[in-house]
Structures
1.
Amino acid sequence: MTCYIAPLPRDQRHRLAPLLALYAAEMRDVLNGAASATPEAQAALLARHPAAEVLLAEDAAGTPLGFAILFDLPEVVFARHCGMLDDLFVRPEARGQGVARALIAAAVAMGTTRGWSHLRWIVPEGDVGAIALYERIASRADWRSYVVRIDPAASL
């Protein structure tokens, strides 16, 4: 499938609401019923967050197919920056057609331009489909992920 990927400006992030609703529903299943905010609240957060960057994948007709949410972070070990891919989602009917790969490739291209040392991300152990893709296109990191739950209502 041909998809077009471009940064989504803050004032357009409300367009993510339908995709965010699908993403939240899917993550509830993967994360054993964790509650989530409304898609409108999620899109509003992305619109006002000072550091969040969003890449949007669309088809030729302009239909949103998926998104990637990224952060440019300091990487003190290398005295450079790195990219953190916080969320990546492709609508179910567009999966298996290269959209996720294209979003990751766009994030890597962004990082190349910015001089990032690497792009990293975490994935829930229960997200089998995503893990299958990531195992094919990336190297598994030597890091463990830990979390301190501050708000029990937001637990994953």
Note: The chain has a mean pLDDT of 89.
2.
Amino acid sequence: MHDTGRGRSVRTPQVVEEILQGVGDRPDISTREVSCAVNVLHSIVWRVLRDEGLHPYHVQKVQAFIPADYAPRVELAHWCLQQLEVRPDFSAHVLFTDESTFTREEGISNTHNLHVFF
């Protein structure tokens, strides 16, 4: 085997924490960017994310609410109320955000390569 000059990657608790911190700070970051930032193999980043139950998903654009959206929204509201009855501090463990993506030209946004880890 040839020496590629790259150090052997070790999966330590510190490395795991750095990977999770990188994804936590920027959910849209690529696994290759995390790999370079933490200086570990790309496969280690994937294994850590998988072991932590984090999976990429592709963002899907939704133009407007439709009548079929009403029932799932009501169901979610009822579920949240049930969670609050069981655990009064439930809302403290939910991330509420108003972040959004805006483009210069209305309606044009390329989300083909946009993945977010959750």
Note: The chain has a mean pLDDT of 79.
3.
Amino acid sequence: MSVRAFMLTAGLSAVALASGALATPTADVARGKALFARCAGCHAVVPGARSIGPNLAGVEGRKAASAGSYAYSPALARLKITWDRGNLDKFLAGPQKMAPGSKMAFAGLADPGQRADVIAYLATLQD
């Protein structure tokens, strides 16, 4: 199997491969779902469901600060990015570092493997 075929099969982008940490073929959706349990208090993943934070169904590929009627912080609205795996990795590593002043009170995931697992799980969520 070619590297490109593997990337497409595994759902990995070239950006993800270039970043190193989140492009491991060992990213595990089940582990990501388990890790996401600590996020579920603030983030819904069922399309249309509301919670304290923005709904994350279909987050990968969506423009930052664009989900439904959630009132985003100006800090997140200023990012002007699309949530690809690289941006998700950077944000999950330190939300306040990427978007100082964001409402996201979570300190971040220091472990690149855990971030890769959570991102793999998020990639399965359909809007």
Note: Residues 93 and 109 are 5 Å apart (CA to CA).
